[in-house]
Amino acid sequence: MTRVLVVDDEPQILRALRINLLARHFEVAVAPDGGSALRQAADWHPDLVVLDLGLPDIDGVDVIHGLRGWTAVPIIVLSGRAGNQDKVEALDAGADDYVTKPFNIEELLARMRAVTRRTAVQDAEPARIEIGGHTVDLAGKTISGGVRLTPTEWRMLELLLRNPGKLISQRQMLTEVWDSKHTTETNYLRQYMAQLRRKLEPDPARPVHLLTEPGMGYRFQP
Fold first, then answer.
1. Looking at the DSSP assignment, which residues form a beta bridge with residue 137?
2. Cα–Cα distance, 211 to 215 (Å, whole number)
3. Is 7 helix (H, G, I), strand (E, B) or coil?
4. Longest dimension (CA), the chain
5. How far apart are CA 165 and CA 113, in angstroms?
6. SS3 58
7. CB neighbours of 171 closer than 8 A, spacing ≥ 6?
8. Residues forming a β-bridge with 78
9. CA of 185: how far to CAs of 96, 149, 180, in Å?
10. According to CATH, where is 3.40.50.2300 located in the chain?
11. Which of 31, 32, 83, 147 could form a Cys-Cys staple with 37, CB 3.0–4.6 A?
């Protein structure tokens, strides 16, 4: 049974999520503030954290930093802060995804399934992944159909494929594919993503696997 820690200072949201998740056979713990969330996580070791940013004692981004100091548990931010900057800060701190309030419970559950699958895939270390009718061999660095990628394209694609369903922020991708000196060069990302789509998507103008989240980053949708 998947253990989910829900962190929110609104009692009605804690109650609603607890009821919905228990009904779907999750094991649920709740925390009304950042301090108790960090203590619960250390004691209970959840499989997934659903976290509000606007907490009464510690900002949610600081909670993410606190968790990332010792655990790679998937974190989904559930927040009323709709601005792109808030989303980017949460993702750069280590969150795996971001859902804006008011939210649809089915969308939240879909995001939870996606990050859970991503964790399972990372644990399994997949060698081959299907995308757009092609088979990508991550270990052998080959793609079926004679598709050839540049080293930079490979680094971008591998980062996305090893994190299926996860939103990879622009800053993270620039840092990991280039280096920390290029975190504002978002034009690089647009250029290389367009090249990847031309090589891998059946219809590059309407991508279904290599998706853009405007102002935030990119996501691989299996």
1. 128, 142
2. 12
3. strand
4. 55
5. 9
6. coil
7. 88, 91, 92, 183
8. 99
9. 22, 21, 11
10. 3-122
11. 31
pLDDT tens, residue by residue, 182-216: 667 788 899 999 999 999 999 999 999 999 988 88
Cα angle 6, 12, 17; round to 5: 40
- pLDDT value at residue 1: 82
Q: How confident is the model at residue 178 (pLDDT cuts 50, 70, 90)?
A: confident
Tell me if 146 sits within 8 A of 199, measured CB to CB.
no
Angle, CA 43 vertex, CA 25 and CA 55 arms, to 5°: 80
User: What kind of architecture, by CATH, is found in domain 128-220?
Assistant: Orthogonal Bundle (1.10)
**Look-up of token digits 């795996």:** 96
C-alpha pair distances (Å), 65 with each of 55, 107, 179: 14, 25, 21
Q: How far apart are CA 53 and CA 81, in angstroms?
A: 8
Report the amino acid identity of residue 48.
L
Superfamily designation of domain 3-122: Response regulator (3.40.50.2300)
CA 6 to each of CA 13, 28, 34, 63, 204: distance values in angstroms, whole numbers, following the listed order: 9, 7, 11, 13, 38
Q: Where in the chain is the domain with CATH 1.10.10.10?
A: 128-220
Q: Are the CB atoms for 221 and 165 separated by under 8 Å?
A: yes
- Both tokens of 59, joined, read 């900002």
Beta strands 217-220 and 167-169 are antiparallel
CA atoms within 13 A on the CB side of 120: 8
CA–CA distance, 213 with 219 (Å, rounded to integer): 7
